């Protein structure tokens, strides 16, 4: 959204925690020009400072293009893992419908209408598969039941095994 904002009304906030490593604890904000002084002042009043050494190393990492290369490698890796998940999910045969996505490290699996998402998550956990019901992320009722499936931290073999175990779990709910 921030890249499309022509009115200077969007503030983009991010962190390097997930894309580099959690202990870095460095975040960033892209704010409209007329708000830079306000946010700089607020930051100085409200938070501790990030290590100067961490900032210097991160700045060098960014300036020399290592971050862009890292992001390209991760996108390729996650793309491959997502493709394995989507391919393996064909075995779910209508129990869970999964489609590829252009972004993120999770996919939504849409459940067959006769399967309860909380029961599905519990059955999956019993098969050593961790998934989350979509309604866990919503205040309002969700129009369609589904599961959130993470794939970024799993290698292809683990993803295929996880889909087999998830298939077993979901079949127990429809028989």
Structural class: alpha+beta
H and E string:
EEHHHEEHEEH
- Model regions low in confidence, pLDDT < 50 over at least 5 residues: none
- Report the average pLDDT across residues: 90
Radius of gyration: 21 Å
Kindly list the characteristics that best describe this protein:
single chain; four-stranded antiparallel β-sheet; alpha+beta; two-stranded antiparallel sheet; 175 residues
Written description of the protein model:
The strands form 2 sheets. This protein has a 4-stranded antiparallel β-sheet, covered by helices on one side. A hairpin with a 7-residue loop joins strand 3 (96-98) and strand 4. The chain has helices spanning 36-46, 52-63, 66-88, 117-126, 156-174; strands at 12-15, 27-30, 96-98, 106-111, 132-133, 146-150. It is α+β, with helices and mostly antiparallel strands. The protein is 43% helix and 14% strand. It is elongated. It is built from 5 helices and 6 strands; from the N terminus they run E-E-H-H-H-E-E-H-E-E-H.
